[in-house]
Design brief:
Helix content is 41%, strand content 16%. The chain has helices at residues 23-36, 50-59, 86-93, 107-114, 118-134, 146-152, 154-167, 183-196, 212-221, 243-253, 267-277, 299-307, 334-343, 350-365, 374-384, and strands at residues 4-7, 40-44, 68-74, 98-104, 138-144, 171-176, 200-205, 226-229, 295-296, 325-326, 399-406, 409-416.
């Protein structure tokens, strides 16, 4: 079965605390996502800020091969006619062929946040989608707070979806906006919704209970065909569904077609690229794309890995563009030394391996640290091998420190001579 992916890194992902991207940044990320092979790239909200207006203007110049740039917007304001609503008109002006329109489906939000009647909200949903459809724009309806809305008032939440259908939506994406729905409840609700609606369903999950990935996988099992998420799970509060986990789980573990198999190898690179572009620190322990995802430190693990890579890895790292690594520390055994020295292009004898391992353990006890310090480890090896020559001899050195106070501010510096 073929699934579709809507990547919302450029919209929902940039809502994460600390994220700030330029128009050029967004254009570069869009081109990388196109190479990954996602079907939709949600570029932003054309009516919300000048940056997104410029992005959609510049995005028209991109020569994308696999992806379609889509716009995000809300239903019309309660006092506006859809055809006169600035938000919807800006979406039309953006020139997109597909738009994601979000609307309230939780009666609490309709009354307390929108400040309108339940009936009026249904009219807003239907008329907004119908207007964009009349302009030849396909609409994906984001049913905001759907699962909370369904639990509070299932009849009304379903009426919201049916209003979107009447308006001409091609997909109804069910949103766990507060991220608080448990997997078993989410799956049951989706199974019920499938019986009450006619168009395709999508899932947009947030990670406030650390269940976004699990909820998305469960939603697919329940019949959802459009997956929304972000690279590395970036997003508001605790983030969104992590596409870097969802895509390989669906494709490698569950047998769904999501993106071309060859493009899956770009996942690690794109994860790193987006992290650097958003100026975030990489999450080393991230599944599939983290630097530690296929790193082996314990001696028992390294020994087994040299015999059979399946012993401590659930997939071959190359499938997602990652690499296998070995580290050495006081927890290491001979296999760690053998594996890492081979990576450095050095073959050691049995006696040399024992000497290196003993030296590492002794120095780590004294406070040295070789994990992630391959150059220091290589230097240690060379010192043990015959023929090593010290490149220079330290005769002496002098450290001087200076303290000063000026305008009530302390200052201290140190110099080595």
């Amino acid at each position: 079965m073929q699934l579709k992916v809507l990547d919302t890194t450029l919209r929902d992902g940039t809502q994460q605390k600390g994220a700030n991207v330029s128009v050029n940044d967004k254009l570069e990320i869009a081109q990388k996502l196109d190479k990954l092979g996602v079907q939709y790239i949600e570029g932003g909200w054309p009516g919300s800020n000048p940056k997104d207006v410029e992005f959609f203007q510049e995005a028209k110049k991109l020569k994308l091969k696999n992806s379609e740039i889509v716009a995000f917007c809300s239903t019309c304001y309660k006092k506006n006619k859809a055809e006169e609503d600035p938000n919807l008109l800006a979406t039309v002006e953006s020139g997109v062929k597909t738009a994601v329109v979000f609307g309230k489906t939780w009666d609490l939000h309709v009354r307390d946040v929108l400040g309108t009647s339940l009936k009026k909200n249904l009219e807003m949903i239907e008329s907004s989608i119908a207007f964009l459809t009349s302009k030849k724009i396909k609409v994906i309806f984001d049913a905001e707070h759907f699962f909370d809305g369904y639990k509070a008032n299932p009849e009304y939440a379903l009426k919201c979806l049916q209003s979107a259908e009447k308006g001409g939506a091609i997909n109804l994406s069910l949103c766990d906006t507060n991220g608080g729905t448990l997997t078993k409840d989410l799956k049951k609700i989706i199974q019920t919704v499938r019986k009450e609606t006619k168009v395709e369903l999508g899932i947009h999950a947030h990670n406030d209970c650390d269940l976004a990935v699990a909820n998305t996988l469960s939603a697919v099992e329940a019949g959802v065909s459009l997956i929304q998420g972000t690279v590395n799970g970036y997003g508001e509060r605790t983030g969104n569904t992590n596409l870097c986990s969802v895509i390989p789980n669906l494709q490698l573990k569950m047998g769904y077609r999501v993106i071309p198999a060859a493009k899956l190898k770009k996942l690690f690179y794109i994860s790193q690229f987006v992290t650097e572009t958003l100026n975030f620190k990489p999450f080393e322990r991230a599944p599939y794309v983290g630097d530690s995802a296929f790193t082996h430190k314990a001696g028992v693990h390294a020994s087994a890995m040299l015999k059979n890579s399946k012993s401590y890895e659930h997939i071959e790292p190359e499938l997602v563009g990652n690499e296998r690594h070995f580290t050495v520390s006081e927890l290491s055994g001979k296999s760690n030394v053998i594996a890492l020295s081979r990576e450095l292009g050095i073959d050691l004898s049995g006696e040399q391996i024992q000497k290196v391992l003993k030296k590492v353990k002794t120095k780590e006890k004294r406070g040295f640290h070789y994990e992630g310090a391959e150059a220091s480890f290589e230097l240690l090896i060379h010192k043990i091998l015959k023929g090593y020559k010290i490149p220079f001899e330290l005769v002496d050195y002098l450290v001087t420190s200076r303290y000063s106070e000026k305008d009530g501010e302390d200052s201290m510096d140190a110099r080595v001579t």
